[in-house]
Amino acid sequence: MILQEGMLQFDFAGAVDAFKFDEQDRALATYHGLSHCMKAVDFVVEYPDHYLFVEIKDPKNSNRYGSAQDKLTLIKNLTTKFRDTFLYRWAENQLDKPVRYQCLVELDNAQTLYLMNQLKNQLPTNKHPARWQRPLVHLCAVANQATWNITFPNIQINRVT
Q1: 107-138: per-residue pLDDT in tens?
Q2: Mean pLDDT of the chain
Q3: ∠ CA 133-33-56, rounded to 5°
Q4: How far apart are alpha carbons 85 and 65 in whole angstroms?
Q5: Can you tell me the distance from the alpha carbon of 10 to that of 42, in angstroms, rounded to the nearest whole number?
Q6: In what order do the strands lie in the sheet with 51-57?
Q7: Is the dihedral of CA 55, 84, 78, 47 positive or negative?
Q8: How far is the C-alpha of 5 from the C-alpha of 25, rounded, in Å?
Q9: Contacts of 26 (CB under 8 A, 6+ apart)
Q10: How far is Cα 75 from Cα 61, in angstroms, rounded to an integer?
Q11: What is the pLDDT of residues 59-98, one digit of tens each?
């Protein structure tokens, strides 16, 4: 299944379903209607054994996240997008499989790794209370465009003109 965000085309090979979750067109069935109070990831993708939430952040303008404060704001934004999307899908009873969260952010490799570690601290990836029956998120990953196709070989990105 192929979805496009801006000039980037994502090929979600093997997906059962995939759709733009932050859809703005009210006429489409995937429009969630809560943009006024909830954030949304760009794509929700269903595979046979898991759901994938995908967020894309400014892959053309790497200077946007240059300062430490900008990175903290970005981490908060990525965290909120995951949590709100999770809550929305939970309320729809659409979370019967593990959830993975993958973000595309155009920063250099060291900054991307830093961002991923900080995001994992904000989301309970492998640490949650013992009484929880299942984790909130099974995997959290951040990559830039240069490393995405290597890191996620079954989800290829191509730039379209």
Answers
A1: 888 888 888 888 888 887 766 777 877 788 88
A2: 86
A3: 70
A4: 23
A5: 11
A6: 17-20, 43-46, 51-57, 99-105, 139-143
A7: negative
A8: 14
A9: 33
A10: 17
A11: 555 566 667 788 888 899 999 999 999 999 999 999 999 9
Tokens of 155: 């989800």
Instruction: Take residue 63 and report the two structure tokens written for it.
Output: 């200077």
Write the DSSP assignment of the chain as a string of letters: -EEEETTEEEEETT-SEEEETT---TTSTT--S-TTT----SEEEE-SS-EEEEEEE-TT-GGGG-SHHHHHHHHHHHHHHHHHHHHHHHHTT---S-EEEEEEE-S-HHHHHHHHHHHHHHTTSS---TT-SS-S-SEEEEE-HHHHHHHSTTEEEEE--
| C-beta of residue 52 within 8 angstroms of C-beta of residue 44 | yes
- Both tokens assigned to 113: 């790794």
In one-letter notation, the amino acid at residue 56 is I
- Average pLDDT of the segment spanning 136-141: 86
Contacts of 158 (CB under 8 A, 6+ apart): 8, 9, 11
